Amino acid sequence: MPRNKHDPHLNETEVQYNRIKKGNILTEVYHIPSSTNNVVLLFCYGIPSHPFDRFPFGLESYLRQGYILAYPHYEGTFGSEGVCTIENAVNSVLVTLRVLLDGDLSDLISGERFNIKPQRIILVGGSFGGSVALIAAAKSDEINNVISVAGPTNYKGRDFSKLKDRLSRAYNKEWNISPLTWRQLMRGKVDINPIDYVKKLKNKNTYLIHGEADPIIPADYATRLYEMLRDGFGKHQILIEPNVGHVGCHYIGMDHVHESLESWLNESL
C-alpha cells in the first residue's frame, strides 16, 4: 500500500473540538478556526468501524488546509441513542447535514455557542459508509459532491451471518441493531443499495475509490457503478488502486489521493 508523508502532527491546542446533538444523533466536529475554508467533510463509517475510522493520522492534511471534519454517530451506534435500522444511518447523516447548515451550534461540553458557517458540505464514506454517503447525497438537494471509498453498491444476495456474529461478539454495545433489521437485511429488504439511486446520482459529482485487491468488497462494485453514472450531468471520477486491499475514509489522506480529490472538487464547483 502507498505510504503517506506527514509533517509533525498537529498539537491538540490548534484544533477546536466540539460535540453537538440533534435528537438522538451525536456529531463530533474538528476544525482550526484561524484557517477554516468553510468546507465541511462529513464522514460516514463502515460496519463495524468507528466514526473516526483512523482519525487523525490519515486526515491531518485536510485540517491543515482548513477543512472542517464532522463525524456523526449513526442512530443506535456509539454515542447516539436509539436503535440502528441500517437505513437510518442515512437519516442520521441528513440530520447532521441540516444542523451544520443551520450554522448556529451549541457545544455539549461547554454549553457555549459556535458558528462554522459552512459554504459547502462534502460527504465521504468508507465501506458501508460509502453506501450511506451515496444514498444521503442522492436524497439531499444540498449535497453536490460525494466520495465513496470501497463502498458496496448492492447488498442483495449477500450473507451477513458472519458480520452479525462479529458485531454481537465484539460490538454489542456500540451497534444496537434489532433482530428484525438483521432478518430484513438478509432478505434484501433494507433500503441501502446505491444502485437504486443511479438516476439521482448521475446529477451529483461522485468520486469512487477502491482497492484493486479488496478481498471484502470487490473493485467491480465501483467500476460497475461508475459505468452507470458516467453519462450523467455530474462530474464522475473513479480511482482503482493497484495492490490495495479494503480501506476506509482515512485513505483520502494519502498524498496522491488528496491531490486528485482537490482537482476534482475544483472542477466540480
UniProtKB/TrEMBL annotation:
<feature type="domain" description="Peptidase S9 prolyl oligopeptidase catalytic">
    <location>
        <begin position="113"/>
        <end position="268"/>
    </location>
</feature>
<dbReference type="InterPro" id="IPR001375">
    <property type="entry name" value="Peptidase_S9_cat"/>
</dbReference>
<protein>
    <recommendedName>
        <fullName>Peptidase S9 prolyl oligopeptidase catalytic domain-containing protein</fullName>
    </recommendedName>
</protein>
<dbReference type="InterPro" id="IPR029058">
    <property type="entry name" value="AB_hydrolase_fold"/>
</dbReference>
<dbReference type="GO" id="GO:0008236">
    <property type="term" value="F:serine-type peptidase activity"/>
</dbReference>
<dbReference type="Pfam" id="PF00326">
    <property type="entry name" value="Peptidase_S9"/>
</dbReference>
<dbReference type="GO" id="GO:0006508">
    <property type="term" value="P:proteolysis"/>
</dbReference>
